[in-house]
Input
Amino acid sequence: MYTILICDDDRDIVSALKIYLTSEGYQTVEAWDGEQALAAVRAGGIDLILMDVMMPKLDGIRATAKLREEGNIPIILLTAKSEDSDKVLGLNIGADDYITKPFNPIEVLARVKSQLRRYTSLGGKSREEEQDVLRNGALVMDDGAKLVTVDGEGVSLTPIEYNILRLLLRSPGRVYSTAQIYEQVWNDPALGSENTVAVHIRHLREKIEIDPANPRYLKVVWGLGYKMEKMA
Output
C-alpha cells in the first residue's frame, strides 16, 4: 500500500484530497507547510508528495528544492492558474508534475497513479532488463539496475528524467517531437506539453552534459524536437 503526503495550508483541500486518495486504497500523511513536509519525508515511508506552492514558513518551491537534494520521491505541485511561472520554476528544480486548482478528482488520481507506476518501476528488475544496457559514447544506462553513468560517474535522475533519457537512448539519431516525448513518458495526451518537456530536457542536460549550453548528447532539432546524438 502506497503512502501519499498531502501538504497544503488549506485544510479543506487536504481533507478533499484525503477522501479521494483513501477511497482508492492509499494511506495519507498530512502536513501544513514545507517544513512539516520535510520532516514527514525524513521520517520515512512516503511514496509520493502532493504539495501546494503557496504556503507559510517554507513554500512548495523551496521545499521541493530541499527534497531534491535528499532523494527522488515523486513530487506533484498544486498550483493556482495564475501561478504559471511557479509551475515552470517547480519543474526546473525537480518537481515531476503539477495539478492546477481547482482540480478534478479523476485527474488527481490518474496523475498519482502515473507517477507511482513510473517511480516504482525503477526498483524492479526482470531477467530481460538485467541484460539491457544502453550505451552511447561515454553515456551508459543499465536499465536492469536502473543506473546511469557519464564518463564513469554516476548520475542521479528523477523518474521522469530517467524515462526521457531511456526513450532517446533506445534510438540514437531519431528525432522525437515534444508531443511524442510527452505521450510516451507521461502516458497522457500532449496538450500544451512543450514547456513541460523543455524544462525536463534542460534539467537532464544539466546532469549529463559537461557544458549544458553546448550539449554532446541531447540535441535540439529546431522546429522538430529532440534527439540523442549518435556517438562513436
In short: Residues 3-121 form a domain with the Rossmann fold fold (CATH 3.40.50.2300).
